Here is the input.
Amino acid sequence: MRHARRCPWWLLGLLLAALHTSAAGLSAGAGKAPIAIGAADLPVDGFVGVHDPLYARVILLGNDVRRIALVTIDLTSLSQDLIARVQAIVQQATQAKAADVVVSASHTFSTPHVQGPGATAAEQARKSRLVQAIEQAVAQASAQAAHSLQPATLGFASGVSDVNVNRDVPTANGWWLGANEDGPSDKAVGVVRLDGPDHQPIALVVNYAVQSSVMEASAVPTGGPQISADLAGAAMGHVERQYGNKPVALWLVGAAADQAPRMTALGGHQNGAPLLRLLGERLGGEVVRVAEGIHTAAATSETLSVTQGSVTVTAQASSPQASPKKPSRDYRFQASGPVAVPYWIVRLGDIGVVGVQAELSSQTGVQIKQRSALRGTLVATMVNGAAKYMPDASAYERITYEAMSSPYAKGSVHTLVEAIVRDVALH
Here is the structure.
């Protein structure tokens, strides 16, 4: 009579671990690399120095059939040409398809605009070197993400931070920019935590509605602004340091068209630095508090996808080329022809990231999150491009800066929201 051979305990453990990994179906890796800017690269686009470094951050997610990547670069905005180059770099390093590489700008106001020609040949050369430095940082961060890919669990939670404020204020001559404590402001801090097998964070995805403009008016004693990752960079740096600089904290700027930092520099010699440190610690501290309360688990759904959609809305004439310079009570909005508006939906199980190019009003972000069919939803702007403002209807009625600057006619955002909510439920 033949006897069945017993499986060694260590082999049984490996088999069970493999089964668990297959069932969870999710792997994650992350990388971060500085954008090298030396003395020879300055001045560029008016910036005369570097206050704090800029980074490229990459989070790679995969299962048995697909890999997707989230990329955030510390820049004000990204041209379509640069986005395509970034997607190609990430694809080569990670094997994620270019269409599954979602690229965002952190939307710091304190960085050079790398698109467009320089004023002189020397300026153009410095811009070209900066683009090369961006591409090198993306390549390094992508390689790190691919190399660190490992079985992962994930979780989502949200907290509250008061470092933002509505920036639309009534004046004697109409609505303009300032700090409106009574205006609508989404204070929610959305956090996705990705843990490795050791239950330590591989990466955190952070979503909050604020423009990173603390340092915009700050200057060095000799004159001129400094390059800075600003509030997004300060907050993400604080989070990463709290975890020993092991995980990557990736910023997704939220629906912040009408949201500014609660405190900003008013000009002068580096007077924005203490404010930047303070607000960065407050926002970053809330991210850490939320992250520590997240209990990660295997994805409740095997869905890992990037879906692109598009809606047609009505364009608005004379903007943004004729950007408003002062408040107005009699500004005439003029509708133009139809224009396509793209959007992206990233699914991580029952957690979703809605991405758009246009800058949305705070309450539009709230509306999308409240109506989403998913357990957790992040609303990100400046995704795969930039398209100025798409404010809500009330902005046109009040004639705000965002409405006058928008390339979209009143009612456009309603069409976009309805399409997004429908597609989130379908996918």
In short: Confidence is low (pLDDT under 50) at residues 1-24. DSSP finds nine helices and 20 strands in the chain. The first strand starts at residue 27 and ends at 34.
